[in-house]
Amino acid sequence: MTAAATPVPPAGTAPTVAVIDYGMGNIGSICKMLRVVGATPVVTADPDAMSRADKVLLPGVGHFDRAMANLTELGLVEPIRRLALEEAKPILGICLGMQLLCRGSEEGTQPGLGLLDARVRRFEFSGPMRLKVPHMGWTELLLRKASPLMAGLDAASRFYFVHSFFVECADPSDVLAEATYGVPFVAAFELANVRGVQFHPEKSHRFGIQMFRNFVQSTQ
After folding, report:
1. Catalytic pick among 63, 190, 200, 205
2. pTM for the model
């Protein structure tokens, strides 16, 4: 797998969002939503294009180790870490992309990007609380702190989830929102410029559109 350079459009009124293309994500649906909220998506595996974009989005659907192997093969692990930690580029991970921002996952053995102190755990239910895995469907969020990412979203906001693993943050102050499926779990986290959401905003209709709009328009 080799990185393909994608030029960033000339500077203009539309913010550019670099959507990292590493072979595992709902890129088409995400780009459509970004255009709806007035952004210019740039699908790329080129670190220079990511650096020139206003913001970076890491999508993801699939297996943790396979995703990290793809990022490693494309030479993207250190560039993503540099963008987030040194350039303070706003970065958003979606679903598996959120999990990749963590230190590691019970789904595999490879280390994650380690952009915040969190681990990914497997849903395990037994006895009377034997729920189906994956967790799939619409679920309301419980916001744990104020954030521009969640502006305009209230307790009635619902998002679409499909996942068998969930994030566990070492520092409770990193938790942006929780949801419940048998047990409470981290639905979104935020540490400075690094954010992740376990749900699929691109499948969450008006609630997802509002969240994408917040991500694109926020100065943080």
Report:
1. 200
2. 0.92
